[in-house]
Amino acid sequence: xxxxxxxxxxxxxxxxxxxxxxxxxCKDEREIGxxxxxxxxxxxxxxxxAYAFRIKTPEGIVPRFSDAGEPSGTAGLPIAKxxxxxxxxxxxxxxxxxxxxxxxxxxxxxxxxxGTAKMALDNAxxxxxxxxxxxxxxxxxxxxDMMTSALTKINGSIVSKNFNEQVDLVLxxxxxxTANFLNRFKAYPQ
Length: 190
Description:
This protein is α+β, with helices and mostly antiparallel strands.
């Protein structure tokens, strides 16, 4: 599975209609809603805002799309197929259309929406998805430097820290590294 690490954008004009696409990283439906509202606000006179998204939840991958008033399956569906075909998660691709007065037909709409979405995805930066696990860890002050160094090597991060007699930490670790890290520092999952 892949995620977007940097948004991608694209624009093209097809038979007088202007298509503008954004491929955005989004972790949940709340972020997707905010991103779609912001994109729509940048283009208040656009005629259509079609989109598709795929997010990873504890229950599995949730895909959704909207044709935004275009004929069924001609706008959001081609975008959704791109996301699924590239095995992307936690992503939303939106395509704005400014109608140019010429009907494109269903095939033309599929090519226009799908093609503009593909261009935006091609312009985005992507990386492999690494599932993270949250753990609690209590260590001595002497272990802090060693733990920080080990955490950096596995691309983990400190979510929170509390300094008392010892250091209480909440960490985010790659799932495949969690067992080794827990054994090394005797942590317990949250």
